[in-house]
Design a protein that fits this description.
This protein is an alpha/beta fold. The protein is 47% helix and 12% strand. The strands form 2 sheets. A 6-stranded mixed sheet has the order 7-6-3-4-5-8, sandwiched between helices.
Length: 417
Amino acid sequence: MVAFNKTLVAKQVWRVVQNPDSLMARILKARYFKHSDIMEAGLGSNPSFVWRSLLWGRALLSKGLCWRVGTGEKISAKLDPWIPGLSSFRCNNNTLLDGNLKVASFISPNGSWYDSIIRQIFSTPEAEAILDIPLNRRGCTDIRYWHGSSNGKYSVRDGYRLEANSFAPPPSQSSHSLLSWWKVIWQLQEEFEVFATVSWAIWSDLCKLLHAPKLLPVAIDVGWAFSLLGAFRMASESCKMLPMQEQISADSLWKRPNVGQVRLDLDAGWDEANNIFSVGAVIRDSQGLLLGAKAKLVRNRGSIKGAELEAIRFGMDYCVAQQFANVCIFSDSLQAVHAVSKPEEELGSVGALALEIHFMLHEHNFLLIHHMKRSANGVAHLLAHKALIWLSNLDWVSCGFPTWLLKAVEHDLSLTS
């Protein structure tokens, strides 16, 4: 109960963090933190019970808050949590850093990291984690986000999970034994099916006991359970032997853009074994003919959604460089499309990237960004996959396309009405 109450109070602190211009936030600021914010404020003199309670809840919130890097002007490189790739979100006792040094010192005017400087000052794991943080090249405000959720928003559920885990006792020997027992059960699939069926039969008997005057003997029901399981397996095998009739829905096929428009298909690839990411972009005209294809290896953006957003920005940069107009953008990542459509809802580390893409859509007169099924994105997927296999960047414009790429395009056109 104490942990739940603390998560509720932390929610109020979160609202002050996210809405600094609200009436409650302004009243608290005028009284307790005139020259800072609620996450940095002290207890003060003669504090009220409400303020003491908020600081109590703030202790929980501070465990999961991390800065999203925009311009970096508000973030202390040494003291603040801002590196999501590290467990503590902070650099570890770096004597080369001053407490007043801001993260902005490591960002170049064109909105990229100073790679060589970062590698000189930070340890290798810290430097790699920093360079993986996506930046908004146009600059945006530094904001705090909750690291424990996919969209960066704090919720009572996430807060309770974090607080409960903080006070959870170490697992006992019995719990380890129970876990091992369940692992064995799940590995024995056939025996577990029997166990589950018999258990269901016994449960069915219990229901009959409550709602029917007579109960069949358990032995009869166990036999009936085995016969039921056998019938189920026979039916399953029969279904496997039946020929599958392939049905292709219209929305699973690639579609030509309208006359006068070009279509940009995008995808990200991931080599999980080596933790390498790639992005691919394919541009085709209203006849379905290739105008350009490009792929490259990119840094790990912390998530598949981050990689898909990187692919969108990569493709848009490609279109701008080649001066393509009336471009329709397609991605098979629904999360990335939603993040670009509503960047204000994406508070996490990739939110800065989504915000930049959102402004690029309007700045360069791109048409709307659409979601498509993976089955309709075979060419971009293949392109990104080739970059992973060959560990190299790929680039073709107008002509000289390889045979394997042309065959993939022809396959799309053969299925298009």
